[in-house]
Automatic annotation (TrEMBL):
Residue intervals of the Peptidase S9 prolyl oligopeptidase catalytic domain: 596-808
Presence of the UniProt keyword Nucleotide-binding in the record: no
One example GO MF annotation: serine-type endopeptidase activity
PANTHER family: DIPEPTIDYL PEPTIDASE FAMILY MEMBER 6, SERINE PEPTIDASE S9 FAMILY MEMBER
Pfam families in the cross-refs: Peptidase_S9
Keywords for the protein's UniProt record, in alphabetical order: Hydrolase
Coiled coil: none
Protein name, UniProt field: Peptidase S9 prolyl oligopeptidase catalytic domain-containing protein
Taxonomic lineage of the native organism: Bacteria, Pseudomonadati, Pseudomonadota, Gammaproteobacteria, Lysobacterales
Species this chain originates from: Ahniella affigens
UniProt keyword Metal-binding present: no
Gene Ontology BP terms: proteolysis
């Protein structure tokens, strides 16, 4: 007798079976040397994993048919390419499983962003991108376009495969380079001359010696004056001397505090002789250490907790109570602690955990009473804020911005107002009060017509005491209270033609003061209230003696539409008339130059070059209208402004109009190349540091491509049809490589994630094809630009050598005209 089946059970079994078959299935990798055959509806997927973390699996979602989504396994750490067969369809890279330093698995969803989508076409090798991760943050995973590198890898590991199956860029963001390169290669005849030899860049010993002197100390110094005004702790934040220095004003001597590896973020005083130092180790996070300088040296750091932790604030009433945040069980928790206790017992003896409902904080602002009041939170959906009321309850809010609008909260004032810097519905960046009751923007607290408010805060506090703006090339301060404003006026009167920042008064009325100018490195001083004068700490490791530094002349040109072009000309005293280095700043939109100390400028001046820096259209510290002038002007209007500034600078004297070169970093390097491309008779050579040679590539290969909003901002900056990757070829040097006639030196870090090394590889491939390869100095410090001391000492003397070699070509120099017509 045959048993009867329950129809419901039959349906249940069928559904359960479908669910089982619909689970992600392990995909079969095509191994090197393995015979490859494809069905009519199959294509090959080329996917590169490039991760610092150990990736164990990646799931690909098949759009419209999730039950057929393959799961890619047998992965690992490092960079490697995988090929697999897939049905012709649209997919997206979705779920990723990685190991957190071998301790635990973390599941991360990349999300449905355009850069994670790709389309597989039958009969082709479809490149879906590089899945890239740098650092330990799981939020750092993104899909990047490293098309050319992947192509070369397939050629090497799968010989002959590309000849059978055409290579195809399958990412959602188009990339015109690959088709352009293949077309140019097919049309290219053998070079009429053999490939030219690259120049030997052997620098003179004096250029190396001065580079070691100039770049040894990074001039961005930070000081913290004790509450009683008698001890100054200076942060020395560079790789040569990672330490703190304690200068005692009463005894005029210095003590040193050695620091563990990592970047020092800030200090928080908890008593007259005790503070907390926050450091960021190489693996990320924040470590908090207490330091007691009340006894005899040597002083040591005591770790508070072996996890991410930070002292948010200390009550100003002298009670020693404060708020301390610590990461416990993957959640950041805030505690009320007694900082007078031994640090290892802060959390153990905390009365209670506070602010439990706030999660995923990335920054806290405390009010005038030391209470954490505003939390900035970030998650997969973006950023938002929580304003915490006195009863401990938080109110969530966000601030909507349009294109080119921004808002940055800067903190609370000493009378309890919450302030932000914003240009929302305003002609420039202004300091504005945020209404804590309605959670809306209120009145303007401070504005400077035609100038941006650049920052606001305090020299040695988390509260907001002043606003900073720029005027006449120097930084200027506006204090929110009359007492501090009067002290500021007196000190500024002593330091004319310099940038001066003055801190609030300590217990004995002393103040911390920063002074800087183009020919004066940043100097930390103390205003001694008893003596009513500035005192420079006289300790052994003070600012290095650079010798005679070159001054800077500022000028302003008016364009026909009323907007200004600002220039800064730094002359050399060692060679007159001097060859001119035109040095555009990066950015370009919103960045700017000022009459502040610049190691690179002073190095070039000592080596015999005049240096011109230009705030062209779109530069920052201006009105929103002036910023908008730079949109859509990459390689065109911006470079027109720079060239106009050169015309004027040549009339000021001391500069040889027949010997002009261009040099810059990031957009500045791109601009330097475009100047030689547009006016080759004037600009005899270019030095391109971390330069984007292919603006189209920036839409799909940069550290911000995981954010579609940022890509749209860049697209807007490039402007109009040029914002589309397929239509930006006319302003990208790599597509105009045949027009590059003058010598060019490329300096690029192989690990640069902002402007990746793909830009260099593309330029090298094109220039080699016509027998004119560019010399390249490749760094391996994972930086955007020449940042590390060892790199600076190696690179800048070679840059000077390269420029001198170009200028030594007398026949070339003598044929260059002095004046040009457009």
């Amino acid at each position: 007798m045959t048993p009867m089946l329950d129809p419901f059970m039959v349906r249940l079994v069928l559904v359960f079976g479908l669910l089982l078959t619909g689970l992600p299935v392990g995909a079969h990798w095509v191994q090197p040397g393995e015979p490859v055959s494809l069905k009519d509806n199959e294509g090959l997927l080329a996917l590169v994993i490039d991760s610092d973390a150990v990736v164990s699996s990646v799931r690909l979602d098949k759009i419209g048919n999730l039950i057929a989504s393959p799961k890619l396994e047998q992965l690992s750490q490092g960079r490697y390419l995988r090929l697999l067969k897939l049905d012709a369809a649209e997919y997206r890279v979705n779920e990723l499983v990685a190991m957190n330093f071998g301790r635990s698995s973390i599941i991360y969803e990349i999300g449905d962003i355009p850069s994670a989508r790709f389309k597989v076409e039958a009969g082709k090798i479809n490149y879906a991108g590089d899945l890239v991760s740098r650092g330990i943050s799981m939020r750092s995973f993104r899909m990047a376009n490293r098309n050319l590198s992947a192509y070369v890898t397939v050629q090497q590991e799968y010989p002959g495969l590309i000849e059978r199956f055409p290579w195809r860029h399958a990412m959602a963001e188009p990339d015109p380079y690959f088709d352009f390169w293949q077309t140019e290669q097919a049309a290219q005849k053998e070079p009429s001359q053999p490939v030219s030899a690259l120049p030997a860049l052997t620098p003179r010993s004096d250029s190396v010696a001065f580079a070691k002197q100039m770049f040894r100390y990074y001039p961005d110094r930070m000081g913290y004056l004790s509450p009683d005004g008698l001890a100054l702790v200076e942060r020395v934040d560079n790789e040569i001397e990672p330490r703190l220095r304690v200068y005692w004003l009463s005894g005029d001597h210095v003590d040193r505090i050695e620091l563990p590896p990592g970047k020092l973020l800030n200090l928080v005083w908890i008593a007259n002789r005790r503070f907390v130092a926050h450091l960021s180790p190489e693996r990320g996070g924040i470590r908090a250490y207490t330091v007691d300088i009340g006894g005899p040296p040597p002083y040591s750091l005591q770790l508070i907790m072996p996890t991410t932790a930070m002292l948010i604030s200390v009550d100003p009433d002298g009670s020693g109570l404060g708020y301390f945040a610590a990461l416990k069980r993957k959640e950041l928790k805030v505690y009320r602690v007694d900082t007078r206790l031994p640090p290892e017992s802060w959390v153990k003896k905390a009365k209670a955990e506070v602010l439990k409902q706030i999660r995923d904080e990335v920054y806290w602002w405390a009010d005038e009473h030391g209470r954490p009041r505003l939390a900035w939170q970030i998650d997969d959906e973006g950023s938002s804020y929580q304003l915490v009321d006195e009863d401990g309850k938080g109110r969530a809010f966000s601030v909507k911005t349009r294109t080119n609008e921004s808002i940055t909260f800067v903190g609370f004032t000493r009378d309890g107002r919450l302030l932000a810097i914003t240009n929302i519905d305003r002609p420039q960046q202004e300091l504005v009060e945020f209404d804590q009751r309605t959670l809306t923007l209120g009145r303007t607290v401070f504005a400077k017509p035609g100038q941006d408010v650049l920052q606001a805060g305090s020299v040695d506090s988390t509260l907001v005491d002043f606003a900073v703006y720029r005027q006449g090339g120097h930084l200027r301060q506006h204090y929110l209270n009359a007492t501090d404003a009067g002290a500021l006026q007196r000190i500024q009167a002593e330091q004319r033609n310099k940038s001066v920042l003055v801190g609030p008064a300590t217990g004995n009325a002393n103040r911390l003061v920063y002074v800087e100018a183009g020919d004066s490195p940043p100097t930390m001083m103390v205003y001694d209230a008893a003596k009513q004068k500035l005192v420079a700490p006289q300790y052994e490791l003070k600012t290095p003696d650079y010798g005679a530094l070159s001054g800077t002349e500022r000028f302003v040109l008016k364009r026909s539409n009323g907007q200004s072009i600002e220039g800064f000309l730094t002359r050399s005293s060692s060679r007159l008339p001097s060859p001119l280095v035109v040095m555009p700043h990066g950015g370009p939109i919103g960045a700017y130059d000022a009459d502040t100390f610049d190691q690179e400028v002073q190095y070039l001046a000592r080596m015999g070059f005049a240096v011109l820096r230009v705030n062209y259209r779109g530069s920052g510290n201006a009105t929103e209208q002036a910023l908008a002038e730079g949109v859509g002007q990459f390689g065109t209007g911006i470079e027109d402004d720079i060239n106009d500034a050169v015309d004027y600078a040549l009339t000021l004297g001391g500069v040889d109009a027949r010997r002009v070169v261009a040099l810059g970093t990031s957009y500045g390097g791109y601009s330097a190349v475009m100047l030689t491309l547009r006016w080759p008779e004037r600009y005899l050579a270019s030095v391109a540091i971390a330069a984007p040679f292919d603006l189209c590539l920036m839409m799909s290969d940069a550290d911000f491509v995981g954010s579609q909003a940022t890509i749209e901002v860049l697209r807007h900056w490039i402007g109009g049809d040029r914002g589309d990757a397929a239509n930006c070829r006319d302003i990208s040097p790599v597509y105009r490589y045949r027009e590059l006639k003058n010598p060019m030196l490329v300096v690029h870090d192989y690990g640069d994630e902002r402007v990746t090394y793909q830009h260099v590889q593309r330029m090298i491939r094109m220039t080699k094809m016509i027998g004119r390869p560019v010399p390249v100095l490749t760094l391996k410090s994972n930086e955007h630009g020449v940042v590390k001391y060892d790199d600076q000492v190696q690179v800048w003397p070679k840059i000077v050598t390269f420029l001198n070699q170009v200028l030594a070509d007398k026949e070339r120099v003598s044929s260059a005209p002095v004046a040009l017509k457009r």
